[in-house]
């Protein structure tokens, strides 16, 4: 039985200073379509090649609307692709990890434009106009600026031979394409999609351009779920898809997501392998040397962290919210080892929601099932979301008696992490008096002491589900 998927890493190094950025409400020029559906359980907000639809969340504020101003039950909130792309980029920038700040321009951020907008928004907040700031000129500037950064191409900016626009543009493109193509995205709340589908990173792994590779590799596998997109659809802002009711109940959507997760966890390892008879496999002790998606694919092996990150990346690429979970030390003792796995978000009604504070759904966990060769899928029985938790090797009372702490990754910075200052339009740093750390961060066994990855503690969840196994 595996006890440690990484191998011993000496405790060394100083804790780096944490760079943080402002999080806040993004005003949008998008349109709210109110609907008087008697039950939100069967609502689905459809998407097409020009617009994306979001289920309206009670806590979500957009275009000056709040729960007191509009009917959210069963309502759909629509954006053009350009509006959604701009907001996605602004979200990623406002919550950028400290690792990425020095390379922000290389990643594809238009730092000048984003910095100007964030400062303008912060000044509006200081003046007491934060909620409605930028609804006129300010917000349109933000959309134009971020859209320029995410779509710079000839003739706007001639492309120099050998140069590209960074991985950000690819990330946003495939986030929108998956939302347009795959029906399960219709039931995913916007806040969940933003945080657990759009980001290009999970923890501190090297930032690489994997989305196009994973999307193309998985598209044939998921072809039966794909909906057609009209190539000649109008770009007129009034040509919005209408809210669709009774297309998918939550139970049907959950079943669909579970089937896709099972299929990907079964086939991913051989589809991405150099040879289908030699699938990507598990090998202990490879983190942090081989743990970003492209390194795992090229080497054909990784330890639990790299495999979990690859599977999270694959699910996010097709519009399924996923995050890595794990413990830095079994029973709180480093010598007993560590482990990483993943969690998947399932949209649901409030009665079946999770208890970790996420509205509109619940998180369920599974392990990557590497080593499945082509032709051996049925006998391999890859892990899935319907499996009894007690059937997983690590889900035992001896490990979850209150002494093992478990965390899951986030991207949104939690309270206490604020965008305080910016040097010109480039670097960022903190005020001396600002709170510098999130209340919860993801503990990385391979990087002890680093607190730059936002996280959520899941110890109670696993004590509940594994403590009786």
Strand content: 5-15%
- Low-confidence segments: 6-41, 60-74, 128-156, 231-237, 416-438
How large is the radius of gyration?
22 Å
Sum up the overall morphology in one term: globular
Lateral arrangement of strands in the main beta sheet: 10-9-8-11-14
- How many E-type strands? 14
Structural class: alpha+beta
Query: Whole-number average pLDDT?
Result: 75
Order of helices and strands: EEEEHHHHHHHEHEHEHEEEHEEEEH
Q: If helices are DSSP runs of H or I spanning 4 or more residues, what is the number of helices?
A: 12
Largest sheet: 5 strands, antiparallel
N→C terminal distance: 16 Å
- Classify the helix fraction into a percent range: 25-40%
What report would you give on this structure?
The chain has helices at 81-94, 104-107, 111-126, 137-151, 167-181, 190-196, 211-219, 250-271, 293-299, 304-317, 377-380, 459-466; strands at residues 31-33, 43-44, 51-55, 76-80, 244-245, 281-282, 301-302, 322-327, 339-347, 361-366, 407-409, 421-422, 428-429, 455-457. With 469 residues, it is an alpha+beta fold. The longest helix has 22 residues, at 250-271. The strands form five sheets. Strands 10-9-8-11-14 form a five-stranded antiparallel beta sheet. It has a three-stranded antiparallel beta sheet with strand order 1-4-3. Strand 6, helix 9 (293-299) and strand 7 (301-302) form a beta-alpha-beta unit. The two termini are 16 Å apart. The chain is globular. Helix 1 crosses helix 4 (137-151) and helix 1 (81-94) packs across helix 5 (167-181). Helices cover 29% and strands 11% of the residues.
